[in-house]
Amino acid sequence: MSTLLSLGHGYSAQALARRLIPQGWQVIGTTRSAAKAEAMRADGVQPLLLPGDLGPALAKATHILASAAPDAGGDPFLRDVPDLAQSGATWVGYLSTTGVYGDHQGGWVDETTPLTPVSDRGRQRVLAESQWLATGLPVHIFRLAGIYGPGRGPFEKVRDGTARRILKPGQFFSRIHVDDIAQVLEASIHRPNPGAAYNVCDDNPAPPEDVLSHAARLLGLPDPPAIPFDQAEMSPMARSFYGESKRTRNDRIKTELGVTLLYPDYPAGLAALLRDEAS
Mind listing the UniProt keywords for this protein, alphabetically (predicted)? Predict the structure, then answer.
């Protein structure tokens, strides 16, 4: 039986599990929350509550997906689970971020672009990527753009009036629907290429204010208020995202993995979220 060990079983890993379990896969997911463990079990995922013994799960795992956030020391699983590098898995995926490329002032980046992160989060991801690649395992790196999907769309804030269009000229972000992340991961499982890195994003990087305006139009509501970036009240985390502007190319997931995006741009993705809400 094919068995996926999901280290840090979060939003993107859940979407992959929804694709694999109906195909007869066993999915084992780690969590530190008893409540999340129960939710995982309800979804057909075998929970592994941490801290716990990963040994039996590692012995069974034919595939590993690592999606835990790194810290200053890099990937926490590689640090805390010494036996991880001895796994016999035939495919390992590491979920990273396009933040590893840093700021390109709205210019385009691809997988050959040098990694020049400007944030602590980006630097930690670069470190974690290098740590995974150094294990000698069949590692594949997936650099995710801004993730949206069910429960993570802009509609709630637009509806309740808390959305704000932050205006910063030349600001571009790339995005990806969580279901497209899942299909990219599954495609890589079927076409492994250890050592490869893939940008996982849609075809239409866009200013963030455009996405909010489109969401408002879909809801039949007026545009959220516009605020210049230098006047906006934002958390340090939110402000740091505006310290990077780039447009990310996704050619490799199409040419190497044969992926056709379910939601190639944010209008398609937001329309689907609204349809799902109504169903």
Answer: NAD
- Residue 256 CA from chain centroid, whole number: 19
Tokens 């250890």 belong to which residue? 194
Domain count, the chain: 1
Whether the CA torsion 257, 178, 18, 87 is positive or negative: it is positive
Residues 191-225 pLDDT 10s: 999 999 999 999 999 999 999 999 999 999 999 99
Q: Supply the CATH number for residue 255's domain.
A: 3.40.50.720
Cα-based torsion angle of the residue sequence 260, 264, 269, 271 in order, rounded to the nearest 10 degrees: -100
Domain span at 274: 3-278
Rounded to 5, what percent of the chain is helix, strand, coil?
40, 20, 40
- Give, in order, the Cα–Cα distances in Å from 236 to each of 80, 207, 239: 29, 20, 5
Phi, psi of 30 (to 5 degrees): -95, 145
Q: Is 270 exposed, middle or buried (0-12, 13-18, 19+ CB in 10 A)?
A: buried
DSSP string, 73-125: TB-HHHHH-GGGGG---SEEEEEEEGGGG---TT-EE-TTS-----SHHHHHH
pLDDT digits (tens, 9 = 90+) for 129-140: 999 999 999 999
